[in-house]
Amino acid sequence: MAAKTKEDKPLRHGYTTGACATAATKAALLALITGEVQHEVTIRLPIGEEVTFPLARCEAGAATASAAVIKDGGDDPDATHGALIVSTVSWSEAAGIQLEGGEGVGRVTKPGLPVPVGEAAINPVPRAMIREAVQSVLQRFQLDRGVRVVISVPDGEEIAKKTLNGRLGIIGGISILGTRGIVVPYSTAAYKASIAQAVNVAREAGCRHIVLSTGGKSEKTAMALYPELPEVAFVEMGDFAGFSLKQCKLKQIERVTLVGMMGKFSKLAQGEMMLHSKRAPVDFAFLARVAAEAEVPQALRAEIGGANTAAQVAEMLAAYPLFFHKLCEYCCRSCLKEVQGGMTIETILITMTGSLLGRVTVDGTGD
């Protein structure tokens, strides 16, 4: 069922690069066998749904054929939306199905990803989808021939600059991804998968200290604070604090630093591990209690309840550093509770401009 906005309007789902590559491959192979240009093609997605893809182009030759699908991400904000996914298929003297990445498809250069180092960044499920599509067409025409498939994305190298591929060690283009075949609008599963992958790549690179940030500004500040750490050590967790921390615990990361701003970290301090504004509004009464612990004057504490945002509270209490220290300590304690100890947690609280408000480290390795 399609995701919905608060106005209850359905959001249109799209299709993964893996599904597009599969459709293009099936069309190209049909063109190669029949000599006829294809205009659309139907494939079965991993979720069991059959989908018909229109083709952006198709060319048939005696020994080679190609087809292309324009990637439709639906209403999901995806860097690959509108990308041309091309499959070029040819007969091969070698038996079986050879699958390769061409122009604009990245190549894996670091361990920790689901594809071995040195291979094209075509993930396992799309690989299986493409192979199954080829095999089904060969069986339909009762052919037993070797087939070479090359997936390419003409603008892939440029598109990849808008993704985390470079940091993950995927060089030269985008990844061909997807486990279900469809892109669910604003999918939390996709974001969580990228976090898990990033943590795993960092661990495989030897990182024992990972820095989790809530967004681009926070990450930029974090990198300035830890210039000695490699780029892979920095992971954007977004709103998924709890999930990110558990991934770090799973990979036996010894030290985790969290960098963020007042809005999200005021929630984290209370033990809320999903930091989205709709999921957990700012609790100004809680901030007032922390202010009391920091010995903020009662008159000023009373004003906290009338604040519009957590950032406004930070401005009001700028002269009371103990408040920010205590808030950071609460964040650390909440995080250690979430992962049941076993690591050192550092919380760095910053302003919108990157200025430091508070910084606290709590050693939970004895917990």
How does this structure look, described?
- It is a single chain.
- With 367 residues, the protein is α/β, with parallel strands linked by helices.
- The protein folds into two domains: 14-183, CbiD-like (2-Layer Sandwich); 190-363, Beta-carbonic Anhydrase, Chain A, CATH 3.40.1050.
- It is 36% helix and 22% strand.
- The chain has helices at residues 17-34, 124-140, 156-160, 165-168, 188-204, 216-225, 241-250, 262-268, 284-293, 298-304, 310-316, 321-339; strands spanning 14-15, 40-44, 50-54, 57-60, 64-70, 84-92, 97-101, 107-108, 146-152, 170-171, 182-183, 209-213, 234-236, 255-260, 344-350, 356-363.
- A hairpin with a 3-residue loop joins strand 4 (57-60) and strand 5.
- It starts with 13 loop residues before the first strand and ends with a strand.
- 44% of the residues are buried.
Q: Please write the string of helix (H) and strand (E) elements.
A: EHEEEEEEEHEHHEEHEHEHEHHHHHEE
Question: Low-confidence runs (pLDDT<50, min 5 residues)?
Answer: 1-8
Question: In total, how many domains does the architecture comprise?
Answer: 2
Structural class: alpha/beta
Give the N-to-C terminal Cα separation: 43 Å
Number of helices: 12
Shape: elongated
CATH topology of the largest domain: Beta-carbonic Anhydrase, Chain A
The number of strands is 16
Strand order within the widest beta sheet = 4-5-6-9-7
Helix percent reads 25-40%
Architecture of the largest domain in CATH?
Answer: 3-Layer(aba) Sandwich
How would you state the average pLDDT, rounded?
Answer: 92
| Percent strand | 15-25%
For the sheet with most strands, the description reads: 5 strands, mixed
CATH class of the largest domain: Alpha Beta
- Radius of gyration over C-alpha positions, nearest whole angstrom: 25 Å
